[in-house]
Write a structure and sequence with these properties.
By secondary structure, this protein is mostly helical. It has helices at residues 6-11, 15-20, 24-41, 57-70, 80-97. It is built from 5 helices and no strands.
Length: 98
């Protein structure tokens, strides 16, 4: 079996056609959550993920899912599902980078 190069492996990951094209509206909503969170916690800094702010991503995601069943919108006008999705992505990213 031939070893694949890093370049060949990357070409097998359909990030655009298999993710971005499937979920454009959802990803836009998640980006709004990300931007709002940055403005709340670091209004004087460029958009960045301050990983020291919260570590309970799965619990926070679950709370947002529960809150969604009561009212889809959080007090700041953002969708609870978008906030839950951001938290799930954060948990996944942290898991994959460990």
């Amino acid at each position: 079996m031939k070893n694949t190069t890093k370049h060949e492996q990357r070409k097998q990951m359909p990030v655009y056609t298999g993710v971005l094209k499937y979920f454009p509206n959802a990803l836009l909503e998640i980006s709004k959550v990300s931007q709002l969170g940055n403005k709340q916690h670091h209004p004087d800094k460029e958009l960045h993920w301050d990983k020291s702010k919260s570590k309970d991503h799965l619990d926070a995601a679950a709370r947002h899912i529960i809150d969604h069943s009561i009212n889809p919108y959080d007090d700041d006008g953002m969708l609870h599902l978008a906030k839950a999705a951001w938290r799930i992505l954060a948990a996944l990213q942290e898991f994959l980078t460990k």
